[in-house]
Amino acid sequence: MTISTAIIGLGIMGRRMLEHMNLHPDFTVTAIWDPDHSACEAAQAIVPGAQIAADAAAAIAAADLVYLACPPVPRKAYALAAARLGKAVFLEKPLGVDIAESRDLVAQITALGVPAAVNFTQAAGAALTDVAASAQSGELGDLMGADIVVTYANWPRAWQQSADWLRFAAEGGMTREVVSHFLFFSERILGPLQLVWARADTPPNSDLCETHVAARLVAENGAVVTIMGSVGGAQPDRQELTIKGSKTSRRIADFYRDAKSNGGDFAPVSADVSDPRAVSLKAQLDDLALLVAGKPNRLATLDEALRVQILVESILSGKNAA
Q1: Domain presence at residue 67
Q2: What are 117's strand-pairing partners?
Q3: Does the predicted TM-score (pTM) go above 0.85?
């Protein structure tokens, strides 16, 4: 028996998950829905067997697992509708943009007791799994902190242009979309982080998202995490997280490419694969099947996603949230 799945939200992330669920032996996408009918048609062209539901409620009713790839604000209502029907829920990140609303979401879903997780794409990946094992074994030495660097010529990036909400401060921006992944990774290695200071700059007199961000956070052992992000200038995308140890440091570039340094140049831990995103998504789906079956898994919990959201929204506001 495969896991019958509904996908709500059929932008780039929804269609990408649809494609990879269709390739995975444990999942069957039985229903899809998006308020934009053209998005539904584009998704159905990828997997003709996926049925376009009449509305979100019909999609939820048709499946045992609901994957929510819609923008953050409507996600809570769909997640609770699914959970109240006993459906498993897999949410895209960020968990939300309003901290109080997300606290309530986590409390309600936890009380309902359904399987639930958030799609931080590195959670089940080889890089995080191996770095965590290296940290626990002592291979890295004392954990000194982490550096997060993201730079883009343009935001949103070319492949995100259809998701227009990503360019606005209300729900979008690189801090929510990219830095959040590396904060999640950092907390898995260093433990809970506290914000010390932050600044995010947005274009004046506009509702657009941040173009520059800087922040300093600290772990319980005193390890410091620094963030630097910027948009603008002729340059390739740069997305790097460096976990710094006294013996060995690890650098994760573009989410998946893992390299190590003992003080010299960073050297790849393993050979590149032709499609690292496909490998990562396969690992996420393997663990999603474990989650639905009630088995141990590496996916991001709701509590972990809430902690990351609190950090992100605090960074964007320049204020540490209680």
Answers
A1: yes
A2: 90
A3: yes
Assess whether 97 and 194 both reside in one domain: no
Distance CA 221, CA 246 (A): 14
Pair 306, 103: CB distance under 8 Å: yes
Instruction: Quote the percentage of the chain above a pLDDT of 90.
Output: 92
- Domain boundary (119, 135, 169) is at 119
User: Is 278 inside any structural domain?
Assistant: no
Domain residues for 63? 3-119
How far lies 144's CA from each of 50, 100, 215, 223, 266, in Å?
48, 32, 17, 5, 17
Residue 103: inside a domain = yes
Q: Same domain, yes or no, for 111 and 233?
A: no
Q: Give the model's confidence band at 291: pLDDT under 50 very low, under 70 low, under 90 confident, else very high.
A: very high
Give tens-digit pLDDT for 167-180: 999 999 999 999 99
Q: Calculate ∠ Cα 163-169-174, nearest 5°.
A: 65
Q: To the nearest whole number, what is the mean pLDDT of the chain?
A: 96
Q: Residues 261, 155: one domain?
A: yes
Question: Which of 321, 218, 304, 307 has its CA nearest to residue 227?
Answer: 218
209-237 pLDDT per residue, tens: 999 999 999 999 999 999 999 999 999 99
